[in-house]
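Hi there, hope your week has been kind to you so far. Do you reckon you could talk me through the fold, stretch by stretch? I've dropped the whole record in just underneath, so have a look:
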Amino acid sequence: MKLSQALTLLPNIGAPANGSDVNKVLKESGTSFGQTLTQAISDVNNLQSEAGKAVESMVTGEGTDLHDVMIAVEKARTSFDLLMEIRNKTIDMYQEIMRIQV
């Protein structure tokens, strides 16, 4: 699953937990949560690399348009922010599970 596919789940954030939506998307894509997370990290890394290359080409004077550089940087920042929120929610979920008494 690509990061763009994971974004389709975002409208449900803040709604009551409905694991069936997440499970449906994961089953349709044929990937596990770990694979999906690994792919999301890879996508964020690629976007950050592209942004770094765009900034470098602008600084060296290769004729890169400022707007293209800003778009690349904002894409990288937004995807990183999303990944950090996913990490935070995962940690919160883990801590909540650990508080459950059995």
About this structure: The radius of gyration is 17 Å. The longest helix spans residues 66-99.
